[in-house]
Design a protein that fits this description.
Elements (H helix, E strand, L loop, with lengths): L13 H6 L8 H8 L5 E4 L6 H12 L23 E5 L8 H19 L9 H16 L3 E6 L3 H5 L4 H20 L4 E8 L16 E2 L12 E2 H7 L1 H10 L4 H12 L12 E2 L1 H10 L13 H9 L6 H4 L1 E4 H5 L8 H7 L4 E6 L4 E5 L3 H16 L10 H9 L3 H14 L9 H16 L2 E8 L2 E8 L3 E9 L3 H10 L12 E10 L4 E9 L1
Parallel strand pairs: 1-4, 1-5, 2-3, 3-4, 13-14
Antiparallel strand pairs: 6-7, 8-10, 9-10, 11-12, 12-13, 14-15
Length: 523
């Protein structure tokens, strides 16, 4: 077995990776593309995709650290290696709980640069005025225009979601702050801003109309993350070790990695698949095809948004058609979850229709699919947070054993033990969604709202030895649900299949907030 190499998990500093002899996937060819033009850039990518590392790479380049780029693509083309004054603002860290703390966090960073470039201008009081003054002083002292790098510009806004007053306060501060990039253009050599959400053009960056958004650019689709080519070229030892540990071939290992962590596309070019680097590196370290991205946390506001709008969860896999505007912009006061699901990495581009200028977006891979479903499952049952009582393996064992009544009892116990709901909701939808998610997590083939010649059944599940037809009612009776199954002959489409057909009629009581009764019939 080969010796393990250093993999940079959690390391987002280019210098540390290069000096510490960590594995580095060369992205410096993108630095060369960017610096050809002096316009400010914006890049949106999901969390844990390497935005911070790329920004750190830019920082080292503009600081003239030629030694760090030895052997990399950029070292073959760059000849000047000037040391520019670099202003690096990292919003991954800081206190964004209120206006005072936010201003203090921003002020601390400005204090550091004021010590480097001279005494603070007493007439500059706001963060924007201080920043403007700094850019002028840096240019005057060094004779070179400044470089501005901003990491996760939208973190304060995302942290404030649910507090409209605080969002508005942060928005005004940031709008003024980023406006300096245009106002002091004569003192700026280069600017690069990253974030999760794409900017709302009538808000934060409304004055910065010279900002080039490369988030959907085909030229920069692989600027973050790891491409298939990079995986197979740069991680040969890791693939070999992982295949050996799991007793599979190297090709089988690559296929499994692809199924779990690949599938992202960030442009019209859907041929260039991108892997989630955080998950991929963790999988190599553990030699295990585990779930890593979700361990970093799923935004509560996002799953709540999906429940509040009664989101069509099936469309997550089937695909959602959107125009480019839905991918490029997100308004913080919007109740539409699709743009945020895309920008945060839960959905990705799967197809582009040139004729209509439209995109189809869907869940990228197995890791995201099962992680999201596990997060949604307790919410549909009525638990505000993840609940350990919902163990999917127990559902799977009962259904495989043909214990349908026990399966329904387990579902009912979960609904009955959940905290009481605080407002009227579509309980039929909750119950249907809950069952659909259970089957999806079990790995069975499930469809909801299945149309046949006489009507539409709520759910049909294909299991190894049986086909299950579900019909849900709210505040009626299971008998009425079964009469609908039989009266509209939902089972006729499956009688030639050869498997046992099991019809499950369910009634949900909104007063009891649990299943009231159910009937099970076999054919």
């Amino acid at each position: 077995m080969s010796e393990r190499r250093n993999l940079p998990i959690g390391i987002q500093t280019f210098e540390k990776i290069r000096v510490g002899n960590y594995v580095y996937v060369d992205k410096t060819q993108f630095v060369e593309k960017l610096v050809r033009y002096k316009c400010p850039y914006f890049l949106s990518r999901p969390r844990r995709f390497g935005k911070s590392l790329f920004l750190s790479t830019l920082k080292s380049y503009f600081e003239g650290r030629k030694d760090l780029f030895e052997g990399l693509s950029l070292s073959e083309t760059e000849t000047e290696w000037k040391k520019y004054p670099v202003f690096y603002f990292d919003f991954n860290v800081g206190d964004f709980t209120d206006e005072e703390n936010f201003r203090k966090s921003l002020g601390i960073k400005l204090d550091q640069y004021e010590k480097i470039y001279g005494v603070r201008n007493p007439n500059a009081t706001s963060p924007a005025d201080r920043f403007s003054s700094l850019l002028q002083q840096a240019h005057e002292q060094t004779g070179l225009q400044a470089v501005i790098l901003v990491d996760e510009y939208d973190k304060p806004l995302l942290n404030a979601i649910g507090n409209e007053e605080l969002i508005d306060t942060f928005r005004k501060i940031l709008k003024s702050f980023y406006g300096v990039i245009k106002g002091e253009d004569a003192h700026i050599q280069f600017a690069f801003i990253t974030g999760v959400t794409r900017f709302d053009k009538v808000s934060i960056f409304s004055d910065l109309n010279n900002l080039r958004d490369i988030s959907l650019s085909e030229d920069f689709s692989a600027i973050c993350g790891i491409s298939q080519e990079e995986l197979e070229k740069d991680f040969v030892p890791e693939i070999g070790l992982m295949a050996e540990k799991n007793e599979i071939s190297k090709d089988e290992c690559i296929d499994e990695l692809k199924k779990n962590y690949d599938g992202y596309h960030f442009s019209k070019d859907t041929k260039t698949d991108i892997y989630n680097p955080f998950s991929l590196l963790n999988a190599f370290v553990d030699s295990n095809f585990g779930s890593y991205w979700f361990s970093t946390g799923t935004p509560t506001f996002l799953t709540k948004m999906m429940l509040d709008v009664q989101f069509d969860y099936e469309s997550l896999e089937n695909g959602i058609d959107v125009d480019s505007r839905s991918l490029e912009e997100y308004r913080l006061n919007s109740s539409e979850p699709v743009p945020m699901l895309y920008q945060t990495g839960y959905l990705t581009i799967k197809n582009y229709e040139k004729e209509f200028g439209s995109y189809t977006i869907a869940i990228p891979n197995a890791e995201v699919k099962f992680g999201l479903y596990k997060r949604l499952l307790p919410l549909y049952a009525g638990f505000p947070n993840d609940d350990k009582k919902i163990e999917i393996v127990n559902f799977l064992k009962e259904l495989r054993a043909g214990k349908v009544n026990e399966f329904m009892e387990r579902i009912n116990n979960i609904f009955a033990s959940a905290p009481k709901k605080t407002k009227q909701k579509c309980y039929e939808l909750d119950c249907q969604a809950f069952v659909w998610l259970i089957f999806k997590l079990m790995g069975e083939f499930v469809l909801c709202e299945v149309q046949n010649g006489k009507g539409r059944s709520d759910a049909v599940v294909w299991e190894k030895n049986a086909i299950y037809i579900f019909e849900f009612k709210i505040d009626k009776t299971a008998k009425e649900a079964m009469e609908q199954i039989n009266g509209k002959d939902y089972s006729i489409a499956y009688k030639s299949d050869g498997r046992k057909i099991v019809k499950v009629a369910v009634n949900y009581s909104s007063e009891k907030e649990q299943l009231d009764d159910w009937i099970i019939e076999e054919e």
